[in-house]
Amino acid sequence: MTERKKIAYVFPIYNERGNIEVLYRTLVEELKRIESRYTFEFVFVDDGSKDDSLELLLELREQDPRVTVLSFARNYGHQMAVTAGIDYAEADAVVIMDSDLQDPPAVSIQLIERWESGADVVYAQRRTRKDTAFKRTTAHAFYWALSKLASIEIPRNTGDFRLLDRRVVAELRKYREHNRFLRGLVSYVGFRQEAVLFDRDARLSGETGYPLRKMMKFAADGILGFSTVPLQLISRVGLAISALAFLGIIYSVTVRLVAPETTVPGWAFVTVAMFLLGGIQLTMLGVLGSYVGRIYVEVQHRPLYSFALVAGGTEGRDDRTETVRRIG
To answer: d(Cα 290, Cα 64) in Å, to the nearest integer?
Structure first.
């Protein structure tokens, strides 16, 4: 009898008390269609939730030995939670899903089927999405900017909902930067990547873990982590301003020599020009500071995350838990 392949599901959790039970029940029901061919592990990473999400997860762990609960010592963010789950999972493939049921569990089976057809990465690409007009507009603007600036091609209208083959997981574990943009890292490592289109549902309950402030930081991680265009733009702006200044000098000298009576002395133009140049310089310094700040964070070599609790596993799990602590 052929040994069944193992699929690990990774769920980042932050204040999801209203979604956890429904997510678990829905997923388990969907997986009954293929459980004769696979074994499953469910890795829930609690990202410092302030509600009773952790208690609900531990109750699930008591009911189902396939459930593993990793609890951070504090809130590290969505991307770190996904990273911890990827670091911990040992399986033939890892499926990453959000826990608010916007990523339909039924679609994960399509990801598995496409993986069995030979793809190493299968990403779920949104055909439609039930979000606010503001969210759709900003998402479109972000992906447009990313496509223009990034040094690699990152598929549009995708989140972290995807399946990764174990070879891809092994490669991702080598990338330990702190300002993480996982969908960019997955594109960066390569391998055979294919899309599965799906219609994204509305959030079941609770509030999004990505308010505007976090969305802006996430966008910065994506652009600054995979593009040096902002740095190149500084040089281009500087050259353009220098060219304009040189033309201004030629114009001023010409007017002074040819028609000195037309020159009108005044400080308004000079003042406006000073403020304009000052603003441009500060903006340039801000871009440089963003890159330098990232360098500063990376050279400190601090752990990506720390666990307050690890509850999971059967045989061989204790040794792997220690490995996770070292990786983090």
So the answer is: 45
How many Cβ atoms are within 10 Å of 56's Cβ, its own excluded? 22
Q: What torsion, rounded to 10 degrees, do the Cα atoms 213, 217, 222, 224 define?
A: 140
How is residue 149 annotated by DSSP? H
Token duo for residue 27: 């997923």
Q: d(Cα 92, Cα 306) in Å, to the nearest integer?
A: 26
Say what the pLDDT of residue 320 is: 44
Q: Across residues 89-96, what is the average pLDDT? A: 92
* Residue 18 exposed, middle or buried by CB count within 10 Å (0-12, 13-18, 19+): middle
Top-level class of domain 5-227+302-327: alpha beta
Task: Give the DSSP per-residue string, 178-214.
Answer: SS--HHHHHHHH-S-EEEEEEEEPPP-SS--S--HHH
Q: What angle do CA 33, 84, 90 make, to 5 degrees?
A: 50
Query: Could you tell me which of 86, 74, 15 has the C-alpha nearest to residue 48?
Result: 74
**3-class secondary-structure state, position 173:** coil
Quote the mean pLDDT of the chain. 76
